[in-house]
């Protein structure tokens, strides 16, 4: 049997994605039914970048499913010294599945080619499929459906935005992006071309018009997490803040709107979103973050052939 990877949501059909979302909801409702399904199985979690949610959700998912997770900080391993393919060829002989958060998607593709076991994308500069999959799960939980809903993504066109475009158009949701800045390393022209063909994708800079009749508004950090505090990135950070300030999710923008508010976290309060909006009754940000756990369980079980 061919091993299955999840490098991008392009790896799944719309039916696959809807099935995973429904499985994640079922797992959340009855976690006891899934205990020990991954007994004696080990997940290697390889991180070149920082993480809170991705690390915690995958590690807890493995524990609750009866398996084990090993955290590998790239900087303290011999991945720093050797060819990535050789280290992966070793790693996959000792573990059952690998999740990697790497700077470059091209290195994730090398990882998948070298591995005999399934590989999951824990976020690269191009895509964040686990995030988008559990975000759609959260929307389905809240709204009871996906098809026909409209999501507006506001901020930088980046990895999360790409996966949301991919995911929404696969499940029949409309997505409008309001992205005055495009993060060049994330650009995927083919993805946008496909999204345009679906008739469900739009791009605009008119945020007021975009959120009219929207069901969900979604934002993300304006500056990549690893660069936020880096003095070398100061100028670019200042330019982005100036350009994006009119696109902040705040009380004035959302006044009187019945619209769910999402953010994949980490949050930079006072930049892309205000505290009042984070804590508002329309915000589902913390449920969204919690759902990473249930979403990761569904992904692990699916790639390991258990559900
Ligand atoms: N949203 C997300 O992936 O969170 P972390 O970067 O903390 O893993």
Description:
There is one protein chain. With 307 residues, the protein is α/β, with parallel strands linked by helices. It has 2 domains: 9-127 and 291-303, Rossmann fold (3-Layer(aba) Sandwich); 131-289, Aspartate/ornithine carbamoyltransferase (Rossmann fold), CATH 3.40.50. Helices cover 41% and strands 16% of the residues. It contains 12 helices and 9 strands. It has helices at 14-29, 53-64, 84-91, 105-114, 129-143, 159-170, 189-198, 207-211, 234-244, 251-254, 275-278, 285-303; strands at residues 42-47, 68-73, 97-101, 119-121, 150-157, 174-182, 201-203, 216-219, 260-263. Strands 7-6-5-8-9 form a 5-stranded parallel beta sheet. A 4-stranded parallel beta sheet has the order 2-1-3-4, sandwiched between helices. α2 (53-64) packs across α12, α3 packs across α4 (105-114) and α5 (129-143) crosses α12. The longest helix is centred in the C-terminal third of the chain and has 19 residues, at 285-303. The radius of gyration is 19 Å and the shape is globular. The mean pLDDT is 96. The protein binds phosphoric acid mono(formamide)ester (CP). Phosphoric acid mono(formamide)ester (CP) binds at residues 51-54, 123, 131, 264-266. Phosphoric acid mono(formamide)ester binds next to α2.
């Amino acid at each position: 049997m061919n091993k299955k990877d999840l490098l991008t949501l392009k790896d799944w059909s719309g039916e696959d994605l809807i099935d995973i979302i429904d499985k994640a909801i079922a797992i959340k409702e009855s976690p006891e039914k899934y205990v020990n399904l991954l007994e004696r199985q080990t997940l290697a979690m390889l991180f070149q970048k920082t993480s809170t949610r991705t690390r915690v959700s995958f590690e807890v998912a493995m524990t609750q499913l009866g398996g084990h997770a090993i955290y590998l900080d790239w900087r303290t391993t011999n991945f720093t010294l050797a060819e990535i393919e050789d280290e992966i060829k070793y790693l996959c002989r000792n573990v059952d599945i690998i999740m990697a958060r790497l700077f470059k998607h091209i290195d994730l593709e090398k990882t998948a080619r070298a591995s005999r076991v399934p590989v999951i994308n824990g976020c690269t500069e191009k895509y964040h499929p686990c995030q988008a999959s559990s975000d759609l799960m959260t929307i389905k939980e809240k709204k009871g459906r996906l098809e026909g809903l409209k999501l507006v993504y506001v901020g930088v066109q980046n990895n999360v935005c790409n996966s949301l475009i991919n995911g929404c158009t696969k499940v029949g949701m409309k997505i409008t992006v309001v992205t005055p800045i495009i993060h060049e390393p994330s650009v995927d022209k083919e993805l946008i071309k496909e999204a345009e063909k679906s008739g469900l994708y739009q791009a605009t800079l008119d945020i007021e018009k975009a959120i009219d009749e929207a069901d969900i508004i979604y934002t993300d950090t304006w500056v990549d997490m690893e660069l936020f505090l880096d003095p070398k990135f100061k100028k670019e950070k200042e330019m982005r803040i100036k350009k994006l300030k009119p696109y902040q999710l705040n009380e004035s923008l959302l006044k009187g709107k019945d619209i769910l508010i999402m953010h994949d976290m980490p949050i930079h309060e006072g930049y892309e979103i205000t505290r009042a909006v984070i804590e508002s009754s329309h915000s589902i940000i913390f449920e969204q973050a919690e759902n990473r756990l249930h979403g990761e369980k569904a992904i692990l079980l699916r790639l390991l052939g258990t559900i």
